[in-house]
């Protein structure tokens, strides 16, 4: 019986990752189509919300996998030469991983708040490092380092902090409401 239950749980996990990846992709497409951008290239959208919710429900790997699938799907319609999708995966994969890891060890409201604070800070740090040393050199290879540093400090860092806070608030508002469905 235990083996059957484990198989059912894995099937349920895969199904939820698929559904949440599709929802995340649709939110990303809608966000991209609205055209709301910061700095001319940072899309204002909430497509990472399903991945954060699944990271809370099933752990960090489920959240990261949801982000990976969402970004692979988005590669079919990219205009960034895949740099935008790589950046989104690195940053929000970090967000989901940290949130899922911390929440996994303290499944209380306070644990959720702490996990989202740490995750937002990790998102911001990953955004600074990845953009300075990987993304912007790929996207803007001829730009001087000082230009890239200014872009990171005055556009990307504040954007990622605000994005982390908005996603955190939405996760706190929604997760407990839909948690019974996810764990039924």
TrEMBL record:
Alphabetical UniProt keywords: Cell membrane, Membrane, Transmembrane, Transmembrane helix, Transport
GO MF annotation list: riboflavin transmembrane transporter activity
Residues that span the membrane, as ranges: 12-31, 51-69, 81-103, 109-139, 151-175
Annotated localization: Cell membrane
Membrane topology value: Multi-pass membrane protein
Gene Ontology cellular component terms for the protein in this record: plasma membrane
Coiled-coil residue windows: none
Pfam families, alphabetized: ECF_trnsprt
Assigned protein family: Belongs to the prokaryotic riboflavin transporter (P-RFT) (TC 2.A.87) family.
Summary of the function given for this chain in its UniProt record: Probably a riboflavin-binding protein that interacts with the energy-coupling factor (ECF) ABC-transporter complex.
The protein's name in its UniProt record: Riboflavin transporter
